[in-house]
Design a protein that fits this description.
The chain folds into 3 domains: 5-116, Jelly Rolls, CATH 2.60.120; 171-290, no CATH class; 310-458, 2-Layer Sandwich (Heat Shock Protein 90), CATH 3.30.565.10. It contains 14 helices and 13 strands. The protein has helices at residues 5-9, 19-28, 111-114, 118-178, 180-188, 194-209, 218-234, 240-249, 254-264, 269-307, 320-330, 332-337, 357-373, 427-437, and strands at residues 30-34, 39-41, 49-64, 67-74, 78-81, 93-107, 316-318, 340-345, 353-355, 379-388, 390-397, 441-447, 450-458. Helix 13 packs antiparallel against helix 14 (427-437).
Length: 462
């Protein structure tokens, strides 16, 4: 049974369309009834019809990593499929009937004639612009969430290393401090003069306050540890190798211990060496905790600088180098994973430029992340800046390049060369929009030896 004008008038977008135009619409369309489980369309099908849902529901799903995920529902009294002036050509997902449907299908072949019916055309064009707006908003949000997911995964990995080091060092420090009472008791029983104590005290704290750089190779270090361990055990220590590891770390060798032995004497030598080692171990662990804490602070500051979350959402003079460096920190884990080497060539005289900082950092993220993806098996990422009335930032990779037949489409909304599930096709379109906000421009060059994007940011902006 064909749909009626009354049924079409119940559709919100068509409520004010004259009856004669709706009568023409239903006369040119084909009404069909679909059962639960039927496909309205399948992935790869040519989209050349507009669908007017009289009743029932169709679930729209898209394939991602081999599985279909829910995107939306075509609800009763709604319009879907191809709309006038839309460039949609092929289904990228499937439409599955979940409630028995009555659908009016209107072929693309009638679109030209459709334009003779003003109110009907106006209603459908408004529907298309609303759909594009909603779809763009949804995909921009998805692009941001995907970027956030990548950054948070890398950040979690980077934070895990120093936080694990802090925990490990804290446990070792706790264990080391537990030995203090016994070793302190032995120290108290020693009968040492100031002439003996002062040189040892000076030795310990000179190495702590001015810790020398240990530039030994692995082979040289092993040799020195073996020599020192043999010397210490020959002079009464029970755990010479364990002591030698800490002492060598502070550049104390056999010659140093000979001086200590000469000052202290044989009777108290073992107790003094144990005390020295305990003090140095504590210092070493505290240094490790301090360095790991600084690493965490650096990462947190990078996140703060990247998001610019302590500033108002207005343009402010900013250093593009800080944004680029913060972005590289945020993506460090992915750079390591893909074995990508980073080379930076920053100009020294780059002035500050008015920026929406968090937005421009999203541009750097999109460009650098795409460059890393293009170098799955290693490569070189080069970030260059120069100043010539405007600031120019070039991000270059040594990846597989962008095919020449699609390079003109890379800034189009939803266009992506990545497999389904790896990109929304919004990254470069969003980047271009952000650069437009800064009255700049972006250019791309690509061949089979790599791709480079050049971003121009004017110093003077309206």
């Amino acid at each position: 049974m064909n749909c009626s004008i009354e049924e079409l008038h119940l559709i919100p977008e068509l409520a004010n369309v004259p009856k004669e135009q709706l009568d023409w619409l239903r006369s040119k369309g084909i009404t069909s009834h679909l059962q639960v489980g039927d496909y309205l369309f399948e992935k790869g099908d040519k989209i050349d019809q507009m669908f007017i849902m009289i009743s029932g529901r169709v679930e729209l799903k898209m394939e991602q990593n081999g599985q279909y995920r829910h995107i939306a529902f075509m609800e009763p009294r709604s319009i879907g499929g191809l709309l006038p002036f839309s460039r949609m050509s092929q289904a990228i997902g499937v439409g599955v009937v979940v409630e028995k449907c009555k659908i009016l299908a209107f072929a693309k072949a009638h679109f030209k004639e459709l334009t003779k019916h003003y109110e009907l055309t106006e209603a459908l064009v408004h529907k298309m612009t609303s759909r594009v707006r909603e779809f763009t908003k949804s995909n921009v949000q998805q692009e941001k969430m995907m970027a956030l997911g990548k950054l948070s995964a890398g950040l979690a990995h980077e934070l895990n290393n120093p936080s694990s080091a802090i925990r490990r060092s804290a446990l070792e420090l706790k264990k080391n401090l537990a030995l203090y009472p016994d070793k302190f008791k032995k120290v108290l029983t020693m009968k040492l003069t100031l002439e003996q104590i002062d040189p040892v005290n000076e030795l310990i704290f000179s190495r702590i306050e001015n810790r020398p750089e240990n530039n030994l190779s692995l082979m040289e270090r092993t040799e020195k540890e073996d020599e020192l361990a043999d010397y210490l055990e020959a002079h009464g220590t029970e755990d010479g190798y364990e002591l030698a590891e800490v002492l060598v770390d502070f550049c104390m060798d056999v010659e140093t211990m000979v001086k200590v032995h000469k000052v202290i004497g044989n009777e108290d030598f073992v107790g003094v060496v144990n005390w020295i080692t305990n003090v140095l171990t504590t210092e070493k662990l505290i240094n490790e905790i301090e360095q790991s804490s600084e690493r965490i602070e650096t990462l947190v500051n990078s996140v703060k600088g990247y998001t610019h979350m302590d500033r108002s959402p207005e343009k402010s003079p900013a250093d593009v180098h800080k944004g680029l460096d913060n972005t590289l920190v945020m993506l460090k884990h992915k750079l390591k994973k893909n074995q990508v080497k980073v080379e930076k060539d920053y100009c020294e005289d780059c002035p500050l430029v008015p920026l929406f900082v968090s937005e421009i950092n999203q541009v750097w993220t999109n460009l650098i992340d795409n460059a890393i993806d293009a170098m799955k098996n290693g490569g070189v990422l080069t970030v260059t800046t120069r100043f010539d009335k405007s600031i120019y930032v070039t991000i270059r990779d040594t990846g597989h390049g962008i095919p020449q037949d699609v390079i003109d489409s890379i800034f189009d909304p939803f266009f992506t060369t990545k497999p389904i599930g790896e990109g929304t096709g919004m990254g470069l379109e969003v980047s271009q929009r952000i650069i437009d906000q800064h009255q700049g421009h972006i250019k791309v060059k690509s061949n089979n030896s790599g791709t480079s994007f050049e971003v121009c940011l004017p110093i003077e902006q309206a």
